[in-house]
Amino acid sequence: MSNFDLMVTSDPTIARPRAEDAPGTGSAPPDSPPASVETRLFELFAKRGLARVEPPVLQPLEPFLELSGEDLRRRMFVTGDADGRELCLRPEYTIPVCRWHLERGDSSLSAAYAYLGPVFRFREGEANEFTQSGVEDFGRQDREAADAEILDFALEALREMSVGDVATLIGDVGVFSALIRAMRLTGSTARRLQRAYAAGKTGLRILAALGSTATTQSHAGLLAALQGQDPAAARLFVEDILKIAGISTISGRTAHQIAARFLEQASNEPSGLSEEQMKIMERFFAIAGHPDEAADALRALAAEAKLDLGRAIETIDIRNGFMEARGIDLASLRFAAGFGRNLDYYTGFVFEIRKSRLADARPLVGGGRYDGLLRRLGAAEEVPAVGCSIWLDRVTDQARRAAQSGEADTP
Q: By the 8 A CB rule, do 154 and 390 touch?
């Protein structure tokens, strides 16, 4: 039985603040969705047995700096309290809901939560305060079934909101991680590739991340001084330099993270791929299409390159089966081996859903698996976790644009 088949209730003694009462939010986000859209989502939450939670709008800054990824870090609204603690306006819901779950006292408890409220982050060409909804599902050991279920929820939510035809892109961060391990890539090469993949870069842009020497040339003196030094002492040395210069963050990175990057660049580890390894990577990134056909292409690559990707590919096969069992047409999905998403905490299945037949459509829904996040936030052990977020302002905006351009779907 899945979490979605159970009613999970929050502690009745905890008063859930309304969005309109949240600090600094005013009466409602400027592009808040029509009431009918919210009503349909609330009905879907109830149908799926989901309890709605609403974590505080003000959140501690550090978890987002450490765990979210560079793209989100540089777009947050940062503030502080009277005691000097660094805070931020909630830029997304996954980390806040994870923290709420941990505060229940039993992080291994299987539970699923829904949310709907305002989030805040800089967005080019879009409102910086907007309404987001979604689901976070914790503790299920049947990971592939949970992956299929979260995608099914996202697609049903869009149907309930009458979005019309959509295009769904899926991928699996775990397959790329398995490829790195199978190719026995280590040190700075592996770290640069994984950072670029986690940042949402694709194909040749990921491989190009290995060739960047601008930073090394700009800081050659400091890097030379760090080579061969004790890592802990060298990190403290760099952090002290940054503090003396009055630098606490750069592009959202903390002083500790900046120091770690300098140490990586100062190491004598070889960085780059051999010609054979580059060909394997290029072939991997070229794999895209029907999920079953993509799995077959990955199997062929693994066999010809003598790489152990068996368990990672099996995960795709099992997930595909659960998707079909839930009535999802695999032909309507596009799997891309090079698709990652721009959040560092994803560990497995990832997906984005966009409006079809609408030029330059931004994602309406994005989500995926993040099995390591709860432990990094303080859980005693790794907790399986998967979720998705729905940008409600984009749902309403793109429906309006489609109608104006004559691309609206016929009922």
A: yes
Among the listed residues 69, 89, 70, 92, the one whose alpha carbon sits nearest the alpha carbon of residue 81: 89
**Residues paired with 112 in a beta bridge:** 137
Residues of the chain with pLDDT under 50: 1, 5-27, 212-218, 220, 223, 268, 410-411
> Kind of pairing, strands 365-369 and 385-391?
antiparallel
Q: What is the pTM of this model?
A: 0.78
Domains identified in the chain and CATH numbers: 3-173+346-405 (3.30.930.10), 209-266 (no CATH)
Could you tell me what percentage of the chain is helix, strand and coil, using 3-state DSSP and rounding each to the nearest 5? 45, 15, 40
Q: Which token pair is 204? A: 């040749």
DSSP three-state, residue 340: coil
Angle at CA 165, nearest 5°, toward 160 and 171?
95
Residue (of 276, 257, 264) closest to 184 by Cα position: 276
Residue-wise pLDDT for 169-198, tens only, equals 999 999 999 999 999 998 888 888 888 887
